[in-house]
Design goal:
The complex is a heterotrimer of chains A (89), B (499) and C (120).
Chain A lengths: L2 E7 L2 H13 L4 E5 L2 E7 L1 E5 H8 L8 H4 E4 L2 E4 L3 E5 L3
Helix pairs in contact in A: 1-2
Chain B lengths: L7 H8 L12 H4 L24 H24 L12 H28 L3 H29 L8 H5 L6 H11 L3 H21 L1 H8 L3 H31 L3 H19 L1 H10 L7 H20 L10 H7 L3 H11 L13 H10 L4 H17 L9 E2 L12 E2 L2 E5 L2 E5 L2 E5 L2 H9 L1 H4 L5 H6 L8 H8 L14 H10 L3
Antiparallel strand pairs in B: 2-3, 4-5
Helix pairs in contact in B: 3-5, 3-10, 4-5, 4-7, 4-8, 5-10, 8-9, 8-10, 8-11, 8-13, 9-10, 11-18, 12-15
Chain C lengths: L24 E7 L9 E5 L5 H13 L14 E4 L2 E3 L16 E6 L12
Classes of the chains: A alpha+beta (89), B mainly alpha (499), C alpha+beta (120).
């Protein structure tokens, strides 16, 4: 299986998004690089609205992901309550 | 009871797909005159799936938020004299190259996506391309704004727009984008939307921008990452266009494969500039070009191509050459600029002893054997007061327009020469892929505006190098030549209180 | 197909054809395995120029900066013209020697191995 990856600007909002990713994707590997946080996982990676909202302590809109997103790989599946990236191989 | 809030999918459908209309009294073909000549067959635009279900309304909302954050940082950077906090004044030369070489490409992409955003027949694709067109305009604007602060303190920024159409090395990015923009809408989408945005821009914006942060340049890292957040959306558009074309009709496969073979190579050659920026121009290094290439191309694009195999798409057959070149590219590129820096709008220098050790460590198979001696020769000449500026004008590749400096991977000390004869005229290329791109469409590339030939025809100010410099708006002894002893270096010493 | 264009009768302009160089022709000069010079160079030369004049007047401008330049034995030098071995008669002109517009002429000096023997 190929690895997917997603990267965020290293800031206060992203920290909670990354915490939520770690909670929901137990095999995800987090790399802290200058000014950015890069997360990798085998095959797919999911970001759940409810987990991020809980982490951040307020209601979080999935589309606000765009503000701190730097890059990603894989196909995207986006809905009101989750954002998922995956490879089909 | 208040009306139920629309969910994301319904909202996207109403605010994007529903904006289209049927052609009841006009001929659809006349409305989209560029849709067929490339040979691409579209049977049903409704099959277009936009992965990011972003509507115009949310687009403005999030973009406005990004801009506010970005400009707050610019203000802080300027108010705190951020230019004095970069690791070293040499660093700023990478940013000069960025403004002159990369930013105008954002503008070219803006124009290109405006074209495809008008010419593609499907509404989903049109809306996505229009958003990208606006993004690209935002990118060049934010980049100019960020650099305008550096322009107050360093040479080489002020004439970027004038230089873009004239300077020899800037014809490399300029001709790249003009090649894409003079193609049809689908080739443009594969060229810029897929090959460049999806496969290659990560290499430009992610490790290099991380490097900017590492070198104390908060303005650049911020516009870089802010632009890259748009880029994530562009990448998904690129991936969608290729899947869509391949699913629409089997006849599209050979056309798309040919475009991929062409544009991955064109884009890779363009990134030569980034390779040397990373390995030679960042005083504080984040990762080597080779490491970045492995992470962002071999790993990420490898997974992508595995996914595209189901459609019959193959990795281009020159991938092995690229794999070998990653250990040579940055060294060969910096050597070009080092010796032609008298005609460039930025300074160059020999790497320091520590930098050379870093390069040896990162490139154990190539640096000491092939490239360290070049810098020893340069240092030797410099010590004698004969800093090496080469004479004459370089032979250029007809396709990528880079000086013929790349070597055979089977013998890295031998320059790689390829040629074709078309209509009784001889044309020269740096590599097999550049030759085959020409051979596929010679009528396009005979038109190439090769800076060296234009100078020799007398079209660049006429006369000698001094006239060419005037034509470039390049003041000798200011923005060009060796970094040591330059006005930039002197000012830096003054700020830092170094004698 | 020589281009995929909107119009089938489209033709590109040959930007670098011979008549655009004011009576000169372009010749590219390279020195194999001497990468001090990052690439071969382009020179506009009169087609009637004798090969000996090229050696005397153009070669020093092209490669004179190299520490090995003065050691070149021009009588032993080997040449590659447009990818084929070439033995020039020094008294003949470029035209007589079939050194054409945009020809690539490479100098090969196997006994000179470049700075520090590294092909530089």
């Amino acid at each position: 299986m190929s690895r997917v990856q997603i990267a965020f600007q290293d800031n206060d909002e992203s920290r909670y998004i990354v915490a939520a990713i770690e909670q929901d994707n137990t095999t995800a590997v987090v790399h802290y690089e200058p000014a950015m946080i890069r997360v990798e996982n085998e095959g797919s990676l999911i970001i759940n609205r409810d987990t991020v909202s809980e982490q951040i302590g307020m209601e979080w809109d999935v589309q606000s992901l765009h503000i701190n997103l730097i890059t990603l790989t894989g196909h995207i599946d986006e809905d009101d309550d989750y954002f998922k990236i995956m490879w089909n191989n | 009871m208040s009306p139920k809030k629309l969910n994301l999918k319904d909202k996207y459908k109403l605010l994007t797909r529903d904006l289209d209309w049927e052609f009841s009294y006009e001929d659809r073909k006349e409305a989209f005159p560029y849709e067929e000549f490339e040979g691409i067959k579209i049977t049903d635009w409704d099959k277009w799936e936009d992965p990011f279900r972003l509507t115009m309304e949310s687009y403005w909302k999030y973009q406005a938020e990004k801009e506010k954050k970005l400009y707050a940082i610019y203000d802080a950077f300027a108010q705190n004299n951020g230019q004095t906090n970069v690791t070293d004044a040499r660093y700023v030369n990478a940013i000069k190259l960025f403004l002159t070489g990369v930013s105008p490409g954002e503008h070219a992409a803006h124009l290109g996506f405006a074209f495809t955003g008008r010419q593609m027949g499907g509404i989903g694709a049109r809306v996505a391309a229009q958003m990208q067109s606006i993004d690209e305009l935002r990118h060049i604007q934010t980049q100019i704004h960020a650099m305008s602060h550096y322009n107050k303190f360093f040479d080489g920024f002020d004439e970027f727009n004038h230089m873009h159409d004239r300077l020899w090395y800037l014809s490399v990015p300029k001709s790249f984008f003009e090649d894409a923009r003079t193609a049809g809408p689908f080739e443009f989408m594969i060229a810029i939307g897929f090959s460049f945005e999806y496969v290659l821009t990560n290499l430009l914006f992610v490790p290099f921008m991380s490097g900017a942060a590492y070198n104390g340049d908060m303005a650049t890292v911020t516009f870089g990452f802010s632009a890259q957040s748009d880029e994530a959306r562009h990448m998904t558009l690129g991936l969608e266009i290729i899947k869509f074309l391949l699913e629409q009709h089997e006849d599209n496969l050979p056309i798309v494969q040919k475009w991929l073979d062409k544009w991955l190579w064109r884009g890779y050659r363009l990134l030569t500039l980034v390779a040397m920026m990373m390995d030679y121009m960042l005083p504080q290094k984040v990762m080597s070009w080779q490491e970045a290439w492995e992470l962002y191309f071999e790993d990420a694009a490898g997974a992508l191509f595995k996914d595209l195999e189901r459609y019959g798409i193959k990795m281009p057959d020159y991938t092995d050459t690229i794999k070998q070149e990653k250990e040579h590219l940055s060294h060969q590129a910096w050597w070009i600029f080092y010796q032609y820096t008298h005609a460039a709008a930025f300074h160059t220098w020999t790497p320091t002893a520590e930098e050379m050790d870093w390069l040896s460590e990162k490139y154990p198979d190539t640096f000491d054997k092939y490239y360290r001696p070049r810098w020893e020769l340069a240092a030797e000449m410099e010590a004698k007061g004969e800093r090496f500026y080469t004479t004459g004008l370089p032979q250029l590749c007809q396709t990528c327009q880079i000086p013929m400096a790349f070597t055979e991977m089977s013998d890295p000390t031998q320059v790689s020469y390829r040629e074709s004869i078309y209509n009784d005229e001889r044309f020269h290329f740096c590599s097999d892929p550049c030759k085959s791109i020409f051979d596929n469409e010679p009528e396009k590339y005979v038109n190439a505006w090769l800076p060296v030939h234009q100078i020799l025809q007398g079209n660049c100010g006429g006369g000698g190098l001094d006239k060419v410099m005037e034509y470039y708006h390049l003041d000798d002894g200011v923005a060009n030549l060796e970094f040591e002893g330059s006005p930039d270096a002197e000012r830096w010493k003054e700020w830092k209180g170094v004698a | 197909m020589t281009i995929r264009a909107l119009r089938d009768d489209y033709h590109g302009e040959f930007k670098d054809s011979l008549e655009k160089f004011g009576g000169a022709q372009l010749v590219y000069l390279g020195w194999d395995k001497h990468q001090m010079f990052c690439s071969s160079r382009a020179f506009p030369l009169p087609p009637e120029m004798r090969f000996q004049e090229l050696l005397d007047n153009v070669m020093p401008e092209a490669f004179g900066q190299h520490p090995e330049f003065t050691q070149i034995d021009w009588n032993k030098a080997q040449w590659i013209l447009d990818n084929s071995a070439f033995q020039p008669d020094h008294s003949k002109s470029l035209t007589e020697l079939d050194i054409g517009h945009k020809s690539l002429l490479r100098l090969v000096t196997p006994e000179l191995t470049g700075y520090k023997g590294a092909g530089i």
